[in-house]
Model the fold of this input.
Amino acid sequence: MEKLSRRNFLKLASAGAGVALLSACGAQTQPATQEPGGEPVVGEPAVDKVTVEMWTPHPLEDNIGITEFMAENYLPDHPDTDFLFTRVPSEWEQKFATAAAGGTLPDIFAVDGINLPTFANRGLTAELSDAVIPQDILDDFYPPARAEMQFRGKTYATVLETNSIALRINVDKMNEAGVEPPETWDELITTGQALTYDINGNHPNDAAFDWNAVRQWAFEQWCCLGEGSVWMVLPWIWMNGGQVYDSATREVTIDAEPAVEAIQFLKDIINVHKIWPKAGMAEAGPEGTFYGQVVVMSATGAFDLANLTETNPPEFSWDIAKFPRPADGQFISGVGGWLFSANRDGQHLEQTLPIMAFTTTDTWQLHTSKFGYALTGRRSIAEQRLQEVPQLAVFLEAMESGRARPRSSQYPLITDALGQAFDEAIFGDRTPEEALGDAAPKIADALAREDAE
Amino acid sequence: MAAQDIQHSTLSRTRHFSWYRVQKTLSKVLWYFFLTALGIIFSLPFFWMLSSSLKVEARIWIYPPQWIPNPILWQNYPEALDLMKFWQLLKNTLFLTTVGTFGIVLSSSWVVYGFARLNFPGKNLLFMVLLSTMMLPGQVTMVPQFILYKELNWINTYLPLLVPAFFGSAFYIFLLRQFYMGIPRELDDAAKIDGCGYIGIWWRIIMPLSKPALATVTVFSVINGWNDFLWPLIILNDANKFNLSLGLATFRGMYSTQWGYLMAASVVILLPPIILYFFAQRLIVEGIALTGIKG
Amino acid sequence: MLSPQTFKQFSGKGKLKFDREALWGYIFVAPWVIGFLVFTLGPVIASIGLSFSDYDFFAPPKFVGLSNYIELFTRDRLFLLSLYNTVYYVIFSVPLGIIFAFLLALLLNVKLPGMNIYRTVFYLPAVTSGVAVSLLWIWLFNPQFGLINYLLRSIGLPGPGWLVDPTWSKPAFILMSLWGVGGTAVIFLAGLQGVPTSLYEAAVIDGANTWQKFRHVTIPMMTPVIFFNLVMGLIGSFQVFTSAYVMTGGAPQNSTLFYVLYLFRQAFRLLRMGYAAAMAWVLFVIVILLTLIQFRLSQKWVYYEGEMMR
Done:
């Protein structure tokens, strides 16, 4: 009985497989570029259409309906162009690397801000001259956002999204404890200790405080391995007057006093003042615990506003506050984001570059900024959104004072060294001097490699 | 083991009737109890997954953990499936999995007969080469293989995902080899005497006797194909061609994850393979009516 | 494995005897050989070449000789650390996994009603797609708010730091791997079916009790399957990657920086594909040596009923 049904199954399966294989072979795509012979627009002569392809890891289709938007606002004026957007759902690095190696990159691809120098250096991205982006529009970009678009004085990308970092705070919990958002590092300690308590209600400065049974923490941020975390730690160093390296002299100063002090401070708020838990690394870390109301202040970027205002509003009152700064320092935020860049080896540069230019126009930026997908880089556009989303104010202020990450074609090596050092010093047992001392020569090495290119 | 216990008891029953029955019932109860306890522990992550799939996003993370969602968001399921274009991806995945599994089972069971039953010069070396293909991390051969597929013009088609399946898969070849080598040679010799060629032996003797192994290979292959992620990702550019695994990644945004939808979709996606396994079990565990030697 | 007859054919004094069996042997393995030559061999050779180069995906590979290997062995502290992390993981997860899977298979191999459901329940973890479940486990392992510590605390045990504590991070991964033994158990289940009942009957006639039956019938007949799971377990666990990639990225303090994770980082984050290829080949040499040793040792303890000593 079983033999018979297996035989039948095999027969069916092979028939099905045969049909399916044939159809799969038939449905093989044409090479992902030329699509000659487009549909003529009524009343106009037929034009050969070229399809410009765009890949990003961002769900631009779901978030801003990019295909329809382009169809309505761009394609009618460009009858020779068609537009195809594909979202790469995850593992962007592997998809990108294999496509680059195989030469199958699309016409426009997204680039993480820190990687643009690498790609620009390798000649992967097309330069965007004044003809593409007029100077006055370029000037309208926030300085750190503009810095991310450029490398060695030339523009190679436009902004897909840019973010500054600030603190999101649980206003209800702050009111409960009767405290205000801290402005200085000292205030962070006192406010933090008021906001942190264990299951018996003891605070960190109480003798009976049980570090292993904390019910509510005051503070949390992403740390430490990985680019996303390094990005959030650097502002603390900058606020204290430190620097990874001097961009002019190329001297590495990450192991100098100000940086060491800043890292020591972060280490202390975990171990000495006990307002930041060590469990902040994981995916379900800051995101989960802020919403779960076990953490009161959580570092986040402008990208979070969409979440907080629309997709997933918390069940408590929230607000955005600036990072606390050292008593004698100033508020400096970090700026990072993703960019659009044009494939210099693409076959349709002529149709691609105008689309690149289009991403800097009012039409585009107003549209994409409406859906809370972080900031689009231009000051005049961002300020128009303030009315709907007042919490944007802190992020915009942060954009003014913020700094882009250091621009180096070897930045991945640098960020790796930094991440290791931060992890070992802040969450680990090494002292900041040791950890940063280890990172410094690695960074110097990376810079030397860049100079040798 | 218990099967043999039951036989044992038949012999002992004449001697210690009621004591044995009590012992048997008790051991059955203990068995169930232990398995149930272990099973619950094993399933806790899935209970949590199910529970989270019905919760308001913001409440998934509260402490102490809340098992029963309140309110129960049944709509997470249709919404998640709609967002990830479930039905289209299901079609794709079914196609990929069926063809792939067919290819793997057929080719692997064919190839392994050579390794397990026939002698030829270089067999052991070749087998070592086969094993060693599994020892090199895929990340390193990924790029050259991608370039190969590009030269063949197979990018953005299903071909790189399907064609290699018809040339045998090292893992399953090794697995089946262990099973084939456990089948007594007398059967082969008997068939040879009856005039069977090697193909006849393969099809009539070996294949039926390795049903549990073949069923296992089928189930594993279906599940691997179902969950296949990386190669579909780097080969396919057209979102309409994606499979369910890739579709699941829709819910992981750049800076946040839509947990409710992710959990709901995950629950739905794991249903078909597990249902398949539920029914395939019979072939694996209880299945085979055989000749006299195996009883 | 190396039977006298094969050896004779191989080293053939005089001509190589191409008998009918050998011809058919080649015919049967041909599909795999062809597939290997077409799809695998080229990329493998390419990866060897890459290991002697500098390659960042954008520019063509640049030959640098042995410098990748030299750097790996002399200047890379994380190389040794990642190897240690991986060996630690392998040493615990493979034996524990096999024992646990075997016990599970024995437990599930009974003809009691409802066993279908139990077998399905224990196989469920093997079916679920890696990423969603890995994310779930992150939450489960959360020291303050996760389910595991919540349960531990409710029975009075202290909850360790798991993914946050360098001492407990690898045990967390080992625990996760035990949760996923369903697949291995299924293979054992299939193997248990292959043990002829006639042997059990013969043992009973000889007066064997349950334990003796287990030791003298079940285990010897299961050795081929045990061997398979051992070899595959070794090969597979040396390449542990996805769970660490999704959950910890190597943290805390590189305690979960497994070898392939470090390799991945070199290849795709630092864009040093050549260096990663060198790492891959070092791993290959380690694993194949261990596998060859296992095969050699298997002659002593693995029993194939269908393998006559020729």
Notes: Residues 2-52 of chain B form one domain. The two ends of chain B are 16 Å apart (CA to CA). Chain B has a mean pLDDT of 86.
